[in-house]
Amino acid sequence: MAEVEEGLVMLEKLSKGKAFFGGDNIGYLDIVIGSVFEWIKVIDKCTETQLLSQAPCLLEWGARFSSHEAVKDVLPGVAKLAGFGLKLKAKI
């Protein structure tokens, strides 16, 4: 978990206060991080941790990313991902 927290803080520094990692528009890095970001929120929910509290700017980025017209209709959401994760865990 400590490594994840370090990674989140590093990502926050990489954003350099921009709306998205590539600047004013969503880029490839935003898409990659956005797909992992939802899982981090699932981990926070399921383990009752607050990994994302270490990176408030990253939380703001996540809100901008998930509400963006290009991705808002395709992101599954925390509840759906958590359910999938629990089903996957049961199979393993």
Keywords:
92 residues, mainly alpha, Glutathione S-transferase Yfyf (Class Pi), Chain A, domain 2, 4 helices, glutathione transferase activity, Glutathione-S-Trfase_C_sf
Mean pLDDT: 87
User: Which structural class best describes the helix and strand composition?
Assistant: mainly alpha
**Number of helical stretches of at least 4 residues:** 4
CATH topology: Glutathione S-transferase Yfyf (Class Pi), Chain A, domain 2
CATH architecture: Up-down Bundle
The rounded distance between the terminal residues' Cα atoms is 22 Å
Pfam families: GST_C_2
Protein name: GST C-terminal domain-containing protein
GO molecular function: glutathione transferase activity
Domain GST C-terminal: 1-92
Can you walk through the features of this model?
This protein is mainly alpha-helical and 92 residues long. It has a single domain (2-91), classed as Glutathione S-transferase Yfyf (Class Pi), Chain A, domain 2, CATH 1.20.1050.10. It has 4 helices and no strands. The chain has helices at 2-15, 28-47, 56-67, 78-91. Helix 2 (28-47) packs across helix 4 (78-91). The protein is globular. The chain starts with a helix and ends with a helix. The model has no long low-confidence stretch (mean pLDDT 87). This is GST C-terminal domain-containing protein. One of its GO terms (biological process) is glutathione metabolic process. Pfam families: GST_C_2.
